[in-house]
Design a protein that fits this description.
There is one protein chain. The chain is mostly helical. Helix content is about 50%, strand content about 5%. The chain has a three-stranded antiparallel beta sheet with strand order 1-5-4, with no helix packed on it. Strands 2-3-6 form a three-stranded mixed beta sheet, with no helix packed on it. Helix 7 runs parallel beside helix 10, helix 12 packs across helix 16 and helix 12 runs parallel beside helix 18. The longest helix has 29 residues. It is globular and about 70 Å long.
Length: about 500
């Protein structure tokens, strides 16, 4: 991993020549050109945002759009000067990269591969949406048929059993773009806020691209699922009659971007490996701050709100951040206690802007962890995906001799005991209060699904316990998380901070 050294924040015109700044939002250079000299036209990348750099460069200047200036270097520092921690030698680009056959060195290749510099420097592939119809698939009738099925699904986008996995297949992996654009149009927000359709389309494409498709759970499909759930919550009568158009726009955008550029590991992992994001955000809501700043970067890069007054645009960015930061599971108790206090005192006033914003925060929190409240067929898939991501992190921690995070050890946990603990200590308390706030058919449906799913995981644990223990041994109580059969800890020991989102 490359090390970031913080530099004094200077005006950009003192750091970067004017001919570079004029490219508006994208800075490109290579090791063969001087940063303060005339650029070599052959080395300039036409990437659409952030900073492009050549993969053979040894040093790159990292200037984030929000004024974060630092030098990222791979050479010139001994490992002990960087840090003694073994994880810092890992490049995030290699976590999910599959080996390719017939690769050649950068010197022998006629074209140098250029990568977009993101926080985790993952490879950025060209979007199918920007190329039009996918190549080598000329079956227009099949495409239209799939599009028709997706359109039929969108007619029932407000139903709680909406199958986001099927919708993602029908949209050729573009569920987040298609769903978000449909909801914005359905609310009439594109016309109301005079959003430029090309800018909006570009923004949504970039948002979907910046989710890591190799993450089993924190990917664009999860973002689409949360966006659909957020729509369901905003359709609840108590909110539908009080939310303003600005509230709805922010709620949908926050849901779509709430896990933007998620690395597939949690905050404690970043902190204990001294990742530069943990240092940048001082170990406080590290991932959520990064998701927010990444979303703001894309808003500014595309100029989606550039036609609005500057003060309005800044206010929307701040409120977007407030919504995304509310999804930090480590602050679950703070939000839950405040929500419970409001309900006990019966003093939530939907005509009050700050109260509406708080309700949007609670709705987004519910949408973010609503998987256990979905029908079993959907909930089970999400449970397996998030556990897979947990276990991948645990494997990395074991490989590099790090302390394995709770619920990330595949030898000590199962999907069932993790989910039972998560439902018991995180999901159920939150949704019980949401049901108090919005006592509707949807709320009772969600609570019913959660109880059935919890019972189903318990039944699976009993079945696994009986198989492992044999006919001569008593079964294992599912309330203990199947610990006797799996060698794992009790579900009651699952910490509240273990996050599924």
């Amino acid at each position: 991993m490359e090390v970031c050294y913080q530099l004094p924040v200077l005006p950009l015109d003192r750091l970067v020549p004017k001919h570079v700044l004029s490219r508006r939002g994208a800075i490109s250079f290579s090791s063969s050109s001087s940063l303060f000299g005339a650029p070599d036209p052959r080395q300039l990348s036409q990437r659409r945002g952030a900073i492009s750099y050549d993969s053979s460069d040894q040093t790159a200047l990292y200037i984030r759009m929000l004024g974060d200036v630092r030098v990222r270097s791979q050479v010139g520092f001994e490992p002990e000067r960087r840090s003694s921690h073994p994880y810092l030698c890992i490049d995030f680009r290699t976590l999910h990269t599959r080996p390719s056959s017939g690769s050649t060195s950068a010197d022998s290749s006629p074209e140098r591969r250029v990568h977009r510099l993101l926080s985790f420097q993952r490879y950025l592939h060209s979007s199918r949406l920007l190329r039009g119809i996918p190549q080598q698939i000329p079956l227009h009738i099949l495409d239209e048929d799939y599009t028709g099925q997706a359109r039929c699904m969108l007619e029932k986008v407000g139903t709680w059993n909406f199958d986001i996995f099927l919708f993602d297949r029908l949209t050729n992996g573009n569920s987040l773009i298609t769903l978000t654009l449909h909801l914005l149009n359905q609310y009439g927000l594109v016309e109301l806020f005079q959003l430029d359709m090309l800018k909006l389309w570009r923004f949504l494409v970039m948002v979907q691209e910046d989710y890591h498709s190799d993450n089993p759970y924190h990917n664009a499909v999860h973002a689409a699922d949360v966006t659909q759930a957020m729509y369901c919550f905003m359709q609840e009568p108590i909110l539908a009659k009080s939310l303003t158009s600005c509230d709805i726009l922010l709620g949908l955008l926050a849901a779509a971007t709430h896990d933007l550029d998620h690395p597939g590991v949690n905050q404690p992992f970043l902190i204990k490996t001294d990742h530069y994001l943990a240092t940048l955000y001082r170990n406080n809501s590290v991932l959520e701050n990064h998701h927010w700043k990444s979303a703001v970067g894309l808003l500014r890069e595309t100029g989606l709100f550039s036609h609005l007054p500057a003060e309005d645009s800044l206010n929307m960015e701040r409120e977007l951040g407030s919504l995304i930061l509310a999804t930090d599971i480590s602050r679950q108790n703070d939000y839950l206690c405040r929500f419970r206090r409001h309900l006990d005192q019966d003093n939530l006033c939907v005509s009050n802007a700050s109260h509406r914003h708080f309700l949007l925060q609670m709705a987004l929190k519910c949408a973010d962890i609503c998987n256990p409240c979905r029908p079993w067929e959907l909930s089970k898939q999400w449970s397996e995906k998030v556990t897979d991501e947990f276990f991948q992190q645990g494997d990395i921690e074991k490989k590099h001799k790090l302390e394995v995070s709770p619920v990330c050890d595949r030898e000590m946990n199962t999907v069932g005991n993790i989910q039972i603990g998560f439902m018991t200590y995180v999901v159920e308390p939150l949704f019980a209060e949401w049901t108090r706030f919005s006592d509707t058919r949807l709320s009772h449906t969600m609570m019913g699904h959660m109880r059935l799913n919890k019972a189903s995981w318990g039944a699976l644990l009993r079945e696994q316990s009986s198989v492992a223990a044999g006919p001569s041994s008593p079964g294992t109580d599912p309330e203990d998380g199947g610990a006797a059969a799996t060698g794992g800890s009790s579900s009651k020991e699952i910490p509240q901070g273990s996050r599924e989102s």
